[in-house]
Amino acid sequence: DTAVSQTPKYLVTQMGNDKSIKCEQNLGHDTMYWYKQDSKKFLKIMFSYNNKELIINEIVPNRFSPKSPDKAHLNLHINSLELGDSAVYFCASSQVTGYYGYTFGSGTRLTVV
Amino acid sequence: GNSVTQMEGPVTLSEEAFLTINCTYTATGYPSLFWYVQYPGEGLQLLLKATKADDKGSNKGFEATYRKETTSFHLEKGSVQVSDSAVYFCALSTVQGAQKLVFGQGTRLTINP
């Protein structure tokens, strides 16, 4: 039973399109995150939600809009996709304090052509 | 702000060699420290963690000790295998401020038979 699951695993789309990535966790965690991994493997946080409430919103273009319908789901919608959005996007979850670590999904590789 | 610095990669070793990947951190407050591993084409897996000074995290033959006096959390393994080839990330999390995981830049490790 997958703890943090993301769909789709691969996403190839044209510039200007709108796309969504879905994330679900079955660990009972209160906090969920989106991270972006660039071509050099660097990982940077984009957003975090605690129990459906937005906690962190790093400097991310407002074309990116996270949505958390409940504390087990955190989806990422991206409008007007650009070439520079090509990356691997990871969803993660943790208990409130992060003491026990963070559990990551397997990633979504987004390629904008 | 909080930050993590890892040794520059890539690192290439022969099988059964001794491995050290250096990691130092800067943090406000008292962080928890983590090593994550990303195997080719896969997501991030928690390798080990430590939550207080002098704690030693260990897993799969890997070890790291939380050194508060040197703000370090170096990863070591006594005898590496080809299957250890992956990208390794040092990371920290603090309870002060918004909860998030801050990553180092990653170190690519290749083990040759």
Written description of the protein model:
The complex is a heterodimer of chains A (113) and B (113). With 113 residues, chain A is mainly beta. Chain A has strands at 4-7, 10-13, 19-25, 31-37, 43-50, 53-57, 64-70, 73-78, 87-94, 103-104, 108-112. In chain A, the strands form two sheets. In chain A, strands 2, 4, 5, 6, 9, 10 and 11 form a seven-stranded mixed beta sheet that branches. Chain A has a four-stranded antiparallel beta sheet with strand order 1-3-8-7, with no helix packed on it. In chain A, a hairpin with an 8-residue loop joins β9 and β10. The model of chain A has no long low-confidence stretch (mean pLDDT 91). With 113 residues, chain B is an all-beta fold. Chain B has strands at residues 3-6, 11-14, 19-21, 23-26, 32-38, 44-50, 56-59, 62-65, 75-77, 86-93, 101-103, 107-112. In chain B, strands 2, 5, 6, 10, 11 and 12 form a six-stranded mixed beta sheet that branches. Chain B is globular. The mean pLDDT of chain B is 93. Chain A binds chain B through residues 31, 33, 35, 40-45, 48, 50, 55-56, 90, 92, 94, 96-107, and chain B through 32, 34, 36, 38, 42-46, 49, 51, 87, 89, 93, 95, 98-103, 105-106, 108.
Task: Identify the notable features of this structure and list them briefly.
heterodimer; A: 113 residues; mainly beta; seven-stranded mixed beta sheet; four-stranded antiparallel beta sheet; globular; B: 113 residues; 12 strands; 0% helix
